Amino acid sequence: MNRERFEELVARAVENLPEEFQESLENVDIVVIDKPTPEQLTKQEVADGDILLGLYEGVPQTERGSYYGMVMPDKITIFQQSIESLHHDEWKIIKEIENTVKHEIAHHFGISDARLDELEEDRKH
Fold first, then answer.
1. Cβ atoms of residues 74 and 57 within 8 Å
2. Which residues of 37-76 are buried (b: 16+ CB within 10 A; e: fewer)?
3. Do 50 and 102 contact (CB within 8 A), yes or no?
4. Count of other CB atoms within 10 angstroms of residue 78
5. Averaged pLDDT, 89-94
6. N vs C: which end of the chain shows fewer Cβ within 10 Å?
7. This prediction's pTM
8. Mean pLDDT in residue range 91-100
């Protein structure tokens, strides 16, 4: 898939979020790059053979105090090659993008990976 199409799908995933989440995405840049850097993989403690699909870097809203201001935007990175390595069907790529965008935005709102796993389990039952 070309980059322009992939970026369109990421933008659409953000646009399809509930309005209250879109309105609360303050000071956040969402970017697409091919794959994570070795430094990103090390910092996130990604094990050999595992794949990093997206990454949130910033100060979650739950940790922002009165001091928060005049800072660089938080950054959500979606890794195109990582997602495409899992799926070749466009529909599955779209679903993976949507899930990854939601996951990384949840981190922006202060929701941990452990809590996201709990919520996913609850949703399945």
1. yes
2. eeebbeeeeeeeeeebbbbbbbbebeeeeeeeeeeeebeb
3. no
4. 23
5. 96
6. C
7. 0.87
8. 96
CATH number of residue 78's parent domain: 3.30.2010.20
What is the C-alpha to C-alpha distance for residues 57 and 8, in angstroms, rounded to an integer? Answer: 22
What is the Cα 11 distance to its own chain's centre?
A: 12
Residue 59's identity, in one-letter code, is V
pLDDT average, residue stretch 92-110: 93
pLDDT score for 98:
95
How many domains in the chain? Answer: 1
47 φψ region: left (φ > 0), alpha (ψ -120 to 50), beta (else): beta
Domain that holds residue 10: 3-124
- CA-CA distances (angstroms) from residue 40 to 7, 31, 57? 21, 15, 10
